Amino acid sequence: MRKAGPSSVSNNLTEGESSTTAVFHRQMGHKALTSASGFRRTSWPNHPSIKMGGKGPRQVLQASAATKGPRRLTEVPAETSQHQAMEKITATINANLLQCCVCSGPLTPPLFQCTKGHVSCSRCCPADGYLDDEVECLMCDEPETATRFRAMEHILVGMRMPCPFRQHGCAKMIPYASVQAHKASCVHAPCHCPISGCTGYGSKPLREHIRQDHPGVVRTIISPHCLTPLRMHAHEQARMVRLGDSDGSPEFLVIVGQYKQLGRMLSVVRLVDESVVEQDFKHRIEVVGNAGVLSLSGETLDAERLKEPYKASPFLFVPNETWDSPEGIRVFIELK
User: Fold this and answer.
1) Where's the SIAH-type domain (predicted)?
2) Taking a C-beta distance cutoff of 8 angstroms, is the pair 281, 270 a contact?
3) For 167-219, how does the pLDDT look when each residue is reduced to its tens digit (9 = 90+)?
4) Tell me: the pLDDT tens digits for 325-336?
5) Among 322, 303, 298, which residue's Cα sits nearest to residue 232?
6) Domain ranges, ordered by start, for the chain
7) Which fold has domain 95-158?
8) Beta strands 119-120; 160-162: pairing state
9) What is the pLDDT of residues 267-284, one digit of tens each?
10) Comparing C-alpha atoms, which of 256, 222, 212 is closest to residue 238?
11) HSE-CB of 32 using CA atoms within 13 angstroms
């Protein structure tokens, strides 16, 4: 094996440049000469400085700084060099830099950038410009051409982000372009509770959340196809209703929400989870007041996990004058 001459390359590469060089070597499949300065020089397999002998794994030559004068080359297993080439970096970046200049949403390819630096995502560019790789910049006061921003597209393709719900137990690393889709389907996403004042909970079904975290909610058993009276108090925010007295009977939640400081809105949802058999139910609610009877009939919606804040639809509006009765409110409910 020949001795390598003194290294004339100074160690002035930054960490980012070193990582880029390592990836380049892995993709090209070349061997690399590593000097004591940390700089790698590309070398072909038949380079005279490498002795090709035997049928074992090829070696990568690495300079040693143990002696003075001309540096001697020592052998490093090729597996070590490949491991170094595959190393990844973890960086922190301002999230605003990954937002579209037009809609302020996340950048989704194809991306376009004008000469003034405005970056537009695929949602803010006309589809006709995709084939020509240029569109009109919507941020410039005067017409300005924006061309395909492929460099940023390559960066986004290689980016992986931790799940936004990692504090709730999700350990997945998500491609940047798939973060929004993952958030909508992640089983660890925090859920919303329809009961006013509840700040939310983990990924368990709403049925289990009501049982465990709202023990103060009154539970009532009623019979199907029967208009059953419920004596509710003005402070009640929900009532659990079971259609039958068996453990597997369908359970419903009568929700009491505030409506613009003018009154209450009553709605009904069926509490379900993976063990509940699919079945359609209808409900009817009546509230008897001094002014008469208020009534609502409709299909009953199923609620397993609420990924968004609960919005009652449809609901029965009850004015404050009726709801705030000191002796309680007469609410009738029928389920079938």
Assistant:
1) 158-215
2) yes
3) 878 888 988 888 888 887 787 888 899 998 888 787 788 999 999 999 999 99
4) 777 788 999 999
5) 322
6) 95-158, 160-188, 193-335
7) Herpes Virus-1 (3.30.40)
8) unpaired
9) 999 999 878 888 899 999
10) 256
11) 25
